[in-house]
Specification:
- The protein is α/β, with parallel strands linked by helices.
- The chain has 2 domains: about 150 residues, TPP-binding domain (Rossmann fold), CATH 3.40.50.1220; about 80 residues, SIR2/SIRT2 'Small Domain' (2-Layer Sandwich), CATH 3.30.1600.10.
- The protein is built from 9 helices and 9 strands.
- The chain has a 6-stranded parallel sheet with strand order 3-2-1-7-8-9, sandwiched between helices. The protein has a 3-stranded antiparallel sheet with strand order 5-4-6.
- The chain starts with a helix and ends with a helix.
- The structure holds zinc ion.
- Zinc ion (ZN) binds next to loops.
- The site of zinc ion (ZN) has 8 residues, from loops.
- It comes from Aristaeella lactis.
- This is NAD-dependent deacetylase.
Length: about 240
Amino acid sequence: MNSAEMDFFQEIIDRSRRIVFFGGAGVSTASGIPDFRSAEGLYAEEENGLSPEMILSKSFFYLQTEKFFDYYRKHLLYPDAEPNAAHRKLFELEQKDKLRGIVTQNVDGLHRAAGNIRVYELHGNVHENECMDCGASYPMEAILDSEGIPRCRDCGGVIKPNVVLYGEALPKYVCIGAIREITNADTLIVAGTSLAVEPAASFIGHFRGRNLVVINRDYIPAETQATLVLRGDVAEIMGRIR
Ligand SMILES: [Zn+2]
């Protein structure tokens, strides 16, 4: 990314009134949360011959619940992670009434922690957990501080994180909201995601606006249609917006 590209990005932001930000793992790496699908990321690791996709699946959750939670605690929960410059800038843009919504594939809850209201969490959120029997709600700490299978204080049922597992459907009302925002956006910023995961990736096809901006470390196929491509770290680039 050079300064001319950054100036162009600033111009796009200044002229836009309905920005939607579509983000993936690369948005949270500066907060110390590893990038799921990158080469060094979480998905490159294998445990006992099981791929993370297998462990983080619906069937594994039901069949090997204890092993699921061992993995989940170790790899998906980051209690000390805090919003970075990208999250903070997006909050600022929402406050200025420029940003219409954030659609995220991340489950870390950092956009809400930064103060954003219109956040569409396609894959759920590690901070919301529910007893499968009585529906009681639990914070992330209930999972983090438990051993083995986390159980409900009231009824002894299994506490299940509100995170979409492989083999589970995306939350319908969240998808409808996300698609509505993308359809009405004048600028769509796609950041820190390779858009490799469906159906989330197909959401981009609903964009009818003027400017598609892609921010990513590596090439992604969607950038062939982009107005502007910014190569680099999402937090660093978003943090430079005035
Ligand atoms: Zn319960």
